[in-house]
Specification:
By secondary structure, the chain is α+β, with helices and mostly antiparallel strands. It is built from 5 helices and 9 strands; from the N terminus they run βββααβββαβαββα.
């Protein structure tokens, strides 16, 4: 994998991510034009949302647009597209973000099931870390999940498991542990060197 390419635009004192490129992906700010019938199908697909906290919520076009307009100024959602053909395959959410405490969260949705298992989540999360650590100078990035694909992606990137909320998530009739992961800026530099070789 090649290193990430970040394009930043200053708005006031805040450096917004306007473009993120990796070997296979081009991530751009998610806009209302991305709220397509295919996107809405992802949000309402039980398999796509199996491990999501919003899995029982039906989302309409109006709901999606309302959510987009309700984001905080420092929260960003990037549309994940394939460099090869521009296909929108998912979203990367940067935030919530706490600049004062120097940490941010990452959330990701690969909605296009035909693109699962190809390493795209790892590329997007790695790009998010580059932005958080290099552009914003954060101390740590964190996330919580019980999604096996997400867990594999962050562990591959050198994240550490920091905690476990035992049997917090109900998947059908099975209770799953909700796991907490994080990576520090000092850890990311060495992990990134391994990942980008």
């Amino acid at each position: 994998m090649t290193t990430q390419s970040l394009h930043i635009e200053k708005r006031g004192d805040f450096p917004y991510l306007t473009r993120l490129e990796s070997r296979d992906l081009l991530c751009v700010p998610f806009r209302s034009k991305h709220v397509s019938s295919r996107y809405l199908a992802w949000l309402n697909d039980a398999e796509v949302n199996r491990y999501s906290r919003r899995r029982f919520v039906h989302t309409s076009e109006e709901d999606a647009l309302r959510f987009l307009s309700s984001l905080q100024p420092t929260d960003q959602i990037m549309a994940i597209t394939l460099r090869a053909n521009g296909e929108h395959i998912g979203n990367l959410q940067l935030g919530p973000l706490d600049l004062a405490k120097s940490h941010g969260e990452v959330r990701i949705l690969i909605g296009e099931k035909s693109q699962w298992g190809k390493g795209y989540a790892s590329q997007a999360i790695h790009g998010a870390c580059c932005y958080y650590f290099q552009a914003l100078g954060l101390h740590r990035v964190e996330a919580m999940s019980c999604n096996p694909g997400f867990i594999r992606a962050v562990l591959r990137l050198g994240w550490k498991e920091e905690g476990c909320m035992r049997e917090r998530f109900l998947d059908g009739t099975t209770r799953l542990d909700y796991r907490v992961f994080g990576i520090l800026a000092s850890e990311f530099e060495s992990a990134a060197l391994i990942f980008t070789k």
